[in-house]
Amino acid sequence: MTGRGPALPSPQPPPSGRSAELRRRFAGQARTGRPDLAALCLLVGAQADGTLDEAGLDAAQMELDRLAGELPFRPGGPREWAVALRELLGDRYGFHGSAADYRRLESSLLHEVVRRRRGLPILLSVVWMEVARRAGAPVYGVALPGHFVVGFGPREEQVLADPFDGGRVLTGSDAELLVAGATGAPLEPSMLAPADPLEVVLRILNNIRAWAAARPERTDVALWAVELSLLLPSHPARLRHERAQLLVQRGEFLRGAAELDAYAEVLAAVDEPAAERVRGQARAARALLN
C-alpha cells in the first residue's frame, strides 16, 4: 500500500452530563488516601473519548489484570522483574513508542495505549507499572526530565527500564544520556525518586495540554485538561489563569473575565503589577462583548 490516507479524527469528549459525572469520580479518586493510578488515567481517557463507556473502562482494567496473570510468579530481584516485564510487554505483546505517537492524542489515553500497544513514554510506563503492581513487583514511576521510565526495587538496588523502547533495561550511563539529551544537565540522584501517582496524572494532563496548544481548533481538549488538573489536590495556581484565557478564546467572555478578576485577587498578594496586568486582560475580555 502506498501513500498516506487522511488522518483519523481525534477523539471527541462526551456529553456534558457524562462529563460532569466523570469529573466527580476523578476528583473523588484523586482525594483518596491511595489514589488508583489506572482508574485516574482511564477517567482522563473517558473525558477525552465519549465512546469510552463503563464496559470499556472495565475492559481496560481486565486487560491489565490478564497481562499481569501472564507474568512468572516472583521471578527474582529487581532486574529479574524488569526483564520479565520486557519479555512479556515489549517482546511478546509489542508495547513500545515511536516519534509518531507524539502527534496523537490517543497516545496519552490509557485505554487506547492498552488497545494499540503504542503511546507516550509516561503512558507506556503506566501500563508497565499497573501490570507489574498487580503481579506483586516492587515497581514505581521515575519522572526523568523529558522522558518517563519505570524503576524496580529500593534505591540501593534500583533497576530502570524504558517502556518507550520496549522495556529495555537501562544502565547508569543510559539514564545519564536520557537526562543530558533532554536538559543538557547531569543526572541528579533526586531525579531517580519514585513519582507520586498524582504527579504522574498531572504530567499526563500537561502532555495533553501541550498537544492541544499546538492545535488551536482543539481548545475543547485544552479546557477539560486544565479543568481536570484543577481537580487535583495540588496543582500550579497559574492553571486558573490558563483556564480563564481558554474561556475567553472560546467566546465565553464574561466567565473568562470573572475568572481573570478572581485570579488577579490571588496574585495581588504576591505581585501587584502582575495582578494589574491580569485585570487589564479581564477588561479587554469584557470589551469584546461591545
UniProtKB/TrEMBL annotation:
Residues 60-206 form the Protein SirB1 N-terminal domain. It comes from the Bacteria. Pfam families: TPR_9 (PF13371), Transglut_core2 (PF13369). Residues 1-21 are annotated as: Disordered. Belongs to the UPF0162 family. This is Protein SirB1 N-terminal domain-containing protein. It comes from Streptomyces leeuwenhoekii.
